[in-house]
Amino acid sequence: MKSHHHQLLFMFLVFFAQKIELLTAETFTGTYGINYGRIADNIPSPDEVATLLRAAKIKNVRIYDADQSVLKAFSGTGLQLVVGLPNGFVKEMSANASHAMTWVKENVQAFLPKTSIRGIAVGNEILGGGDYELCEALLGAVKNIYNAVDKLGLADVVQITTSHSQAVFDNSYPPSSCIFRENIAQFMKPLLEFFSQIGSPFCLNAYPFLAYMSDPENIDINYALFQKTKGIYDMKTDLHYDNMLDAQIDATYAALEDAGFKKMEVIVTETGWASLGDANEAAATVNNARTFNYNLRKRLAKKKGTPLRPKMVVKAYIFAIFNENLKSGPTSERNFGLFKPDGSISYDIGFHGLSSAESSLLSLKVRDSLYQHTRSFKRQHIGIRTVYFLDKNN
After folding, report:
1. Which of 197, 268, 333, 343 sits most deeply, having the most CB atoms within 10 A of its CB?
2. What is the pLDDT, as a whole number, of residue 383?
3. Which of 318, 360, 389, 381 is nearest to 52 (CA)?
4. Tell me, what DSSP letter sits at residue 62?
5. By C-alpha distance, which of 278, 376, 334, 317 is closest to 36?
């Protein structure tokens, strides 16, 4: 009878282990994430950034490379990280599977499981970028990186993606008319076919800020900022849109459906609003950035879908943690951060600056320690109660 008890207890523990494994395989917890850009010489250290993000309870983070100082700093924090394979590596990874394997071993496997790496973004905004050779190399790089991850037994934990700008689309207004550009489709469709096979989402970089800036005379800024507005009506689908981001996401779903990938999920991998700009970037103000990001946070917290895909909960990574002083281009490019270089808030949307985060770190560690002790006690208690329950029934 005791062996029977042990067998049932073993099955019970295996069941819970499987549950835990399923939880660890999630690539996005909740609906809110953030991009950690580091093109700056005045931002806090990766350790301080980990403290800041934990205090803000932002769990999902994307970086644009696989910088080892960041991977080490995020070890043991519980922050879920998507690392980037920079565009400059894509041709090499496409041409050489062994190089892809080496890259995955050194930049992903070596840091698991302590650093919670949940995805690899292969390149950023390659399709639609104008580099034909890079476009040709993307699918090969994606396949080689995926095959390396798969051979290492990590395919259920680490998701492979690539992000697209809206330059891949034609006719995005109204949303239902959107399709992939003709010169993009030859690269896009095989890529989507592969992502469909491995269960990856379509990753979209969507900026109402840029769309508004391109046509301020015909776009209501309130529509771009999630403010009250009459919105737009799509006659083909009989759907109403009260904010631009939802329309941009549904335009993507329309293009995917047109290409034959109706069931593919769309995740917003970048969106944000600049708080400072040049003279010709009048919409880049602190007030507008605060309004956009505050309302976006509220919209994501509702955990709802879009008019076209009401059951597909919208998930988005905000761009970005910090203003980045070394970025090129217009002034707006250097001013998308929710936080200033010194770690203080750029504007108030409910987060606290680095100094507040550091002062609360001790209490956070104490709480985590208490939580771990409580879990340990519960596990022992559950085991005792399970055996007792089996004994009573036999």
Report:
1. 268
2. 43
3. 360
4. E
5. 317
Q: Residue 63's closest CA among 41, 42, 79?
A: 79
Work out the pLDDT band at 373, boundaries 50, 70, 90.
low
Cα Rg of the chain, angstroms: 23
Cβ distance 299 to 271 under 8 Å?
Answer: no
Q: Active-site residue among 106, 125, 193, 217?
A: 125
Active site residue 281: no
Mean pLDDT estimate for the chain: 89
Which has more pLDDT, 263 or 383? 263
Q: Residues 136-182: pLDDT tens digits?
A: 999 999 999 999 999 999 999 999 999 999 999 999 899 999 999 99
Q: Are 365 and 78 in contact (CB under 8 A)?
A: no
Q: How far apart are CA 117 and CA 103, in angstroms?
A: 14
| Cα(324)–Cα(346) distance, integer angstroms | 12
Distance CA 145, CA 162 (A): 12
337, 307, 312: which is closest to 325 by C-alpha?
A: 337
pTM of the predicted structure, to 2 decimals: 0.86
Helix (H) / strand (E) element for 179: namely strand 179-180
How many whole angstroms separate alpha carbon 289 and alpha carbon 226? Answer: 11
Q: Which residues contact 99 (CB under 8 A, 6 or more apart)?
A: 92, 93
Distance CA 183, CA 386 (A): 62
Active site residue 257: no
CA distance 9 to 381: 13
Tokens of 47: 């350790």
Chain-centroid distance of CA 182 in Å reads 28
How confident is the model at residue 371, as a pLDDT? 53
Residue 244 has pLDDT above 90, yes or no: yes
Q: How far is CA 194 from CA 39, 142, 214, in A?
A: 32, 9, 33
86 upstream amide cis, omega within 30 of 0: no
Q: ∠ CA(287), CA(43), CA(298), 5° rounding? A: 35
Sign of the Cα pseudo-torsion (277, 282, 285, 289, in order): negative
